[in-house]
Amino acid sequence: MAVGSLKRPNVLWVASLFILFLIWFLWGLKAEFFPTSEKWYSSITTGVDHGKTHFGNSTEEYVPPNEGVNNGNGNSKGTSNIQYSDDSSKTGDRPLILYAYHETDNARRNFEFFIAHALHDAADFIFVMNGETNAMQLLPERPNIKYIQRGNDCYDMGAFAEVLLKDDLYKKYSRFITMNASIRGPFLPYWATGCWSDMFLSKVTDEVKLVGITMNCRPLPHVQSMIWATDRAGIEVLLFPTEAQVKRLKETLPPFSAGEPVPTLQHAGINWCPHDYWNAVSVEVHATPLIEAAGYKVDAMMSAFHKQARFEDSCGEPEAGQDPLYDGQYFGTTLHPFDTVFAKANRGTNAKIFARLTEWTDGSNYTSYDHCH
Predict the structure, then answer these.
(1) In sequence order, what are the beta bridge partners of 130?
(2) Which tens digits make up the pLDDT trace of 187-209?
């Protein structure tokens, strides 16, 4: 009896040590698989951070989907669920897809179509919501889908530059797609089984650093900016053109025709804030010759771009000197959505075909999750 009484405290002591060791071990597992460090909370590739944090010294508040702040005038406060870090190892070769959105009826329909058919797990998506909107509430809550709500200023390219430069976000990725809500897609024939984002990014090579859907010859040959694909080298030219590249660009720019509404070069690249429409168009127009001034080439999905070695050489032809995004202005025909994967949706072009393809794609329940891996 006395011996048993002496052993009992020892047993309790050993049990207590075991429980403490078990708690310590489980806590270690939690730290490994569910880290709570500041670095993890700021990582763009981890899950949604449901705690509200602040973005530097700005008034932009970063929150997950469905917790966005209604700005009223669309300019006083920005919201987002973007998370930043200095850790680029987690992104690997994953592309970053930036999608600019400004609320209109047409943009909302294109946005809904994109959510239904274009989202996938093989890329990181950031939706840049320009101005007052609640469209971010439609976004699924997934770790690779983020948004930022900001004032409606600087147009698409200026907004993209702002997002890419914050905490050097662009350095965490090697491949990029920028696009806006004026286009709808992807539209693909039944036999096409590839991933839409790969279709664009695969055209970016050591020589080609800017890929879009169409090239417009006026006021000078340029890849139109509704959707662009590029890589780290290309995005750095657009963000930080060197003095030599800018000098070469200025030397090669042709004069514009009298009465041309697009202004001549004001700032090389996308890293500035145009406040009016035509200045924003100037950013688009001068991006192509800037890429070429850096020693690279551009490419476009439209079949006509590949009808000869240098499409630009055909720009003097009457049929080539028109904006191909309008009815009947694509070398006497109208551009088909299958030609470009995404199609301009706010110009009334190809209205019957456009409506049918939208209806059929919706009806087929096509999803890029089945094709993008």
Answers:
(1) 150
(2) 999 999 999 999 999 999 999 99
